[in-house]
## 1
Amino acid sequence: MQIYPIETGNFKLDGGAMFGVVPKVLWQRTNPADSNNLIDMSLRCMLIEDNKRLILIDNGTGDKQNEKFFSYYFPFGDETLDSSLAKYGFHRNDITDVFLTHLHFDHCGGSIQWNKNKTGYEPAFKNARFWSNKDHWKWATVPNQREKASFLKENINPIEESGQLNFVSLPEKDFLVNSELGFDILFADGHTDKQMIPHIKYQGKTLVFAADLLPTTGHIPLPYVMGYDTRPLMTMDEKAEFLKKAADNNYFIFLEHDASHQLCTVKHTNKGVRLDKTYKFNEVFQ
C-alpha cells in the first residue's frame, strides 16, 4: 500500500462560523482571520494505492459552479486535483474508487463535472465506484433546511444516475471494521448524519482521515465546534471519545481543512487532550 496527500486548492470561510460560540479573541490565535473575518482552509484529499485499487477519499469543490458561487468562498492556490494526481503519476481515469466522507459541496463537488458540450453533468471519474452510505445518502438527498445550501443536487444526483453509486455497510454501533474499501470506518453524527471517518493501518501506524470531525488543529479543544454542525453537543461527545483514543493510541490525524498542517498528533494534558506535534505527510510516511 502507498498513500499520497492530494492538495486540490484552498478556500476561505467565515471564522465565526467555523468556531461557533468560541470568541474570536480565542480562535484567532490558531486560525488568524483577514479583514473580512475569513480564515484560510485547505481542500486536502487522500489517495490510497492498494494493489489494483486506487482509492480517492473526498475530492474538493470541483470547478463546475458559477462565478457567483465561488465569490462566496474565495478559492486560491495553484494546486488542483489533476496536478496533484499527476505529481504521483496518476490521472483521474485511473481512480477505481471515490470514497466520500459526506456529501457537503467542499468534500464531493469534484465528483461531477460538466460534459464536453456543457449541456449536462457527468462523473469526473468515469472508471470509479462512488461510495457513500444509505443513511447519509437519504439525509443528503432530502436535506434539512440547515444543510440545504451544502447539499447541492448537481453534486449528488448525477452520481446515482451514472449507476456508479455504491454503499458501504452500516455497523450496528458506530465503528465498521474492514469495510468494503479495506479500512475501518468511524461513523459520526454530530456534523451531519453518518459522516464517515476512515482509519487506515499504514506503515505500522494508524492514519485517520479526520474530515469535519476535526477540521483543523484549532478545533482540538472540545468547545471549539463549527457553527455548521447539526448536533454540536453530539460533536463534542464524539470528538472527546475520538481524541482520547487518538492520544492513547498515537493516531496520526490527517487534516482535510487545515491550511498550515497536513498531519498532527495529540496528547493528554491537565487541560484535556491537546495538540502534540504537527507534521508534513512525508516527514512521517515514506
## 2
Amino acid sequence: MMALVVACACNAEDITIRYKGTTAKVDQKVKDSVNITVSGAHVEIESLYKSHKLTLLLTGKSDDGQLVLKTVGKAKVKLEDLTLTSQEGAPLWLKNKKKVEVVATKGTKNTLTITACNDTVNHKAAAIWAKDKLLLSGKGTLNVVATGDGCRGIKSKKDITIEELTLNVTTSGNNLGEKPFGFGGFPGGFPSFGNDSIKPGNFPMPNFGGQMPNFGGGFPPFGNDSTMQEEMGGFTGKHKYVASTKGITSKGKVTMNSGVLTVRTSTPGAEGIEGKKGVAFNGGKVDIVASDDAVNANATIEFNGAHVTARSTGNDAVDSNPETGFFMPFGGNNNTNSQEADTAIVVRGGTVYAWSQVGSPEEGLDCDFSPIVIEGGTVFSVGGGMGEMPSVPTNATAKQPTVLLIGLNITKDEPITICDANGKRLDTITIPFSMRRSASLVTCPAFKLGNTYTVKTKGYEKTFTLNEPFTTVR
C-alpha cells in the first residue's frame, strides 16, 4: 500500500529514514516542498528546494530496500550503521541536479548491496547511481557491493570525489552480454581502439618522438582479451562487454583527495576505476585489483600525492587514452587543427605501484604513445610492454630521473630492492605474481643524474648509472 506524505525540512537532519526488514519508518519536519512516498522498505523523496541543502539520515537494515532521491538543489545523505540491500536496481539512486554528498558518519560501518540489474531502464545498475556530481566522504566506513550481473559499484554521469572516507568497492557479477568488434576487412567501418574511434580520411603518422617504436616483430595486439579477425589476416580487435561490472565509473572525473579506497573486480572487462574526463589521486591510500584496467581514463591520469597500488589481472594497470593521443590523427579528436597530444599520465608525488600481470603487450603504465610526465614521487611499474617498448617518458618529460628496466625477472612474493651506490635501501617492493623479462619503469625522489643504483632480486641484480633524465637499461 502506498502512502503520500508532504514535508518541509530546514534543520540539521531534515529527514530520517529507519530501515527495519521489509519496512521503512520516515521521520521528517513537516512543512512543504518535499514529497515522500513509502512502499515497504522502498522510499522515494522529491525535493523542490533550490537554495536549501536537504539533509537525510539513513540507518537500520533491510534486505529489500531502496532510497530514490530526486533533488533540484544540493543534498547530503548521512549513513549511520546502515545495511541496505536492493533486490533490483540501485539501493541508493540519486536523481540529483546538483551535487549530493554521501557521508559515512564517524565510527560507523555501512553497506550498500545490489543483487540484480535486470531492469536497467527503470532501476539503475549500480549500488550507488548519481545523475550529477557525487561527493563520498565521512570518517566512517562504506562498503559497496555489487553481486548482480551487469551491476557496477558506483556510477555517476558527472564528477565523483572521495575524501576522508574508508571506501570498499567489490563487484562480482557477470556481464549482461558481449559483442566482439574488430576490423572485419573494414566493410562495416573502422574499429575502436580503447575508446577512440578511427574514421576514414587522411592518416598522418603519429609523432613517436623522432623514431618508430619497436613492436618486437609486428604490430602488437591491443589488449589481452582480443579475438582474431580473419578478414584482416589475423589483425586483432578487443571484445566489448555490455554492462561490465566496473568498480567506480564516471562520465566526468574521479578524484581521490584523502581516506582509504579499496576496489576489487573479477569479471572480464570490469575496470577498477574509470573516469572518462580524467582521474586524479591527490592523497590517501588506494588499493585496486581489477580483471581489466585497474585505472582507466580518456584524459589525463594524475598522481599527486596518494599511495596507489593498481594491479590488473588481465589488462593494463593504468591506462590513459586521451582523445588527442596516439590515434588522434584517425579521428575522435575535437582539436583537429593541432597534432600535439595531451598528457596521458603525470606523476607529481606520492607512490605509484602499477602492475599488470599478464605479460606483453599489457603494461603497468599505458599511455598509447601520448606524453607521460614524471615530476616527482616514487614509481615502480610492472608489465610485459609492447615489444620491449612500453609507454615511457622522454628526456624532456622525465623531470625526475627515471629508468626503464627491461628483462627484470620477478618472482611472486620475493622482495625487489633498490639501493644507491653506498648500499642504502631506497625502496623495497613485493609483487604478488611472477613474470619473466618484465619491463619496469622506476623512479624515486632520491634518484640523481650521474649517480649509480642497483636493483636486486633473488635471481637478478642490475647496476646502472642515470646518465640522462630517462635511461633504458637492458
## 3
Amino acid sequence: MLTDALSKGGLNVPHLSGPLADELKAQLYPGASVGNPIDILATGTPEHLKLCLDYCENKFEDIDAVMAIFGTPGLVTMFEMYDVLHEAMQTCRKPIFPILPSINTAGAEVADFLKKGHVNFADEVTLGTMLTRIMNVPRPAANEIELFGVDVPRIRRIIDSIADDGYIPPHQVQALLRSAGIPLVDEFVSSKKEEVLAFARRAGFPVVAKVVGPVHKSDIGGVVLNIKSEQHLALEFDRMMQLPEVTAVMVQPMLKGTELFIGAKYEEKFGHVVLCGLGGIFVEVLKDVSSGLAPLSYEEAYSMIRSLRAYKIIKGTRGQKGVNEDKFAEIIVRLSTLLRFATEIKEMDINPLLATDKHVIAVDARIRIEKSGKQMQ
C-alpha cells in the first residue's frame, strides 16, 4: 500500500536485486524478501532490522530514504526493536520515517519511542501521500517578475486615464491585454451597422457577433456564433441593438479550438488570486479551476495547469490533439504581471481563450476596476 501511494505520486521505489540483495537475503530467515519492500517476516529479530537499515544506509546506492513499518507481531514486546530504530535515526544520513501502526497492542512501546523525541506515522498511506505532495510542490517563485514583452508604462497610462469605477469598455480591455503581450482575436465595435458589416467583409465570414454593454451577454441572447453572410449579420445587428442596455455590437472572426479560461480576483492583504481551467460553460459546470497568487513564475503556471482534473484534455486524449501548454502558461504569467502593476483591477476574466496545438488566443474578456479604494503597494 505504501509502495502504491509513493508510485502514484511520482516517487520511485527501486527494485533491489543483484549480489548485494542476495547477500542481505542470505542473512535473514528463510522466506524473507529483499526485492523492495524488504520483509524480515514477523519472526524477524532486532538484529535483522539493524542489518537491513545498515544495508539501506551504506550499501544500496539507489535508496535515498527509508520507511520502517513495524507493528507488533504479537509474539514479543517491541522495546528492543524500537531502540534499534531510535539508534539508527540518530546516526543515519538518510532520513528514516517510522511507521508504527500497532498503537494499541504496542501502546507502551510506541509511547516510549515518542518520548525520545520522535514522531510516529500510524498509517503508511497517509505518510506516502503526504510525502508525494511535498515533493511535488513547485519551488518558491523567484523575486524577479517576468517583464519580457510587458509594457508597464503603457499599462499605467491606460489605468490612469480611466475615470470611473466598474467594468471598462472593450477597447480599453483590448489595450490592457495587448500591453501585456496577450494575443487577441481581431474585433471591431460599433453602433453603426454599415461599419460592422464592412469589418466582417474584410475579416471574412463566418463571424461571431456579441452585444456591448450587458455583463452576461449570453443570458439575454447577446452572442451569436457562426454568422455566414452579410444578410444574417445585418438581421442580428438590428435585433441586438434592441436588447436592454446594449450600446454597440462587437464582431469577430469565428475561430475554432479548445475553450480555456483565465480569471483573477483581488483579495485584500493578499493581492490578486489568478485562476485557470477549461473555458466556456465548463467553468461553472465542472468547477475545475486551479489558483495561484500573482505575480506567478512559469513553474507555478505549469503547476496550476497540470493540477486540473481536465489536464488530460489539455494534454490531448483519445486521438485528439492537445493545446499549446507553453502558450497557455505564458498567458497566465503575462496576466499575473499585468495585475501586479494594475492593482486597481479588482476582477477580470478571459473566457474563452481558444486554444489549438499551435496558438492560444483571447476571444472575450472583461475587467472591473476600482480606483477609489486603497491600493496594495
